[in-house]
């Protein structure tokens, strides 16, 4: 057995969450196809607050363009109202909009059948690559080491520590953290843990330039079809998450996605229907999805020193600092003091009840 190194905590894959945990823990260590959305529920000011505590400046590239959700169905209006009321109760500055108010914000969308909308001006976009670079720079300053091109072959956990067997040797660690994103399920399986995380391909396309429109638009989400769009480089970025897509690690763009968009785009965004797509600006990435579309942060009973932190389904960049803090407290204190992690426990999938996330973008 070749011993690569001994460390207090081994953070396995998942660059963004791993870097966040490495910062908080001050020891240790996929970003692909990211949309870069940042909603106030997860708030870019969290990075600012973290920076003020650590003295580190994050390169966010934050642009507060706002998120505009809209619906034309009774069930959609009910769901939107419930989400709005919950967000308001938690201090999120989100507005309820009449159809006329939706049109004031986005006069280019179809008004036919429109019932209501919500808008949060504090939502916007951040630069995922900039955030990762900033976090990694701070993690390195605190002593973290990155082992690139290293595959984890097996994780063996005991009451006293963890042995991580890799293609570059073995790592002896007091704790290991599975932050491997879409690969987290496979990695957990190598330790005998059933982690219900499925990788699903998510495609994005960008149109050619389109004159006569505002240079900046909100992120517009048609809740009835799942199609979203915003301005991007003179054209419009278009996304859609198909819940029926089969599990896949494939990150090549799926041409069938164009047909799926064509079937739905006319509901609210008919102005995009005939715009040419720029083939060089079509790409795909992976969402790590759980059955209820909520993350897992837990120290499993069968391997409490192998902490699971994965399944964020596209929200990883928004949750990264909070998730890193939660993992740090699990390691340092044996439990999380800052957040209630009970809703994110691994065992919930064998229990009855529980909340299911419906707004998967």
Structure notes:
This protein has 361 residues and is α+β, with helices and mostly antiparallel strands. The protein has two domains: 3-60 and 127-197 and 294-350, FAD/NAD(P)-binding domain; 67-123 and 201-289, D-Amino Acid Oxidase, Chain A, domain 2 (2-Layer Sandwich), CATH 3.30.9.10. It contains eight helices and 16 strands. The protein has helices spanning 15-25, 45-54, 74-89, 99-105, 128-141, 184-189, 256-264, 316-333; strands at 3-12, 37-38, 67-71, 95-97, 116-120, 124-125, 152-157, 162-166, 169-178, 198-206, 219-222, 228-232, 235-239, 283-289, 296-298, 306-310. An eight-stranded mixed beta sheet has the order 4-5-3-11-12-13-10-14. Strand 8 (162-166) and strand 9 (169-178) form a beta hairpin. Helix 1 (15-25) runs parallel beside helix 5 and helix 1 packs parallel to helix 8. It is globular and about 65 Å long. The model is unreliable at 22-32 (pLDDT under 50).
What's the arrangement of secondary structure elements?
Layout: E1 3-12, H1 15-25, E2 37-38, H2 45-54, E3 67-71, H3 74-89, E4 95-97, H4 99-105, E5 116-120, E6 124-125, H5 128-141, E7 152-157, E8 162-166, E9 169-178, H6 184-189, E10 198-206, E11 219-222, E12 228-232, E13 235-239, H7 256-264, E14 283-289, E15 296-298, E16 306-310, H8 316-333
Parallel strand pairs: 1-9, 3-11, 9-16
Antiparallel strand pairs: 2-6, 3-5, 4-5, 7-8, 8-9, 10-13, 10-14, 11-12, 12-13, 15-16
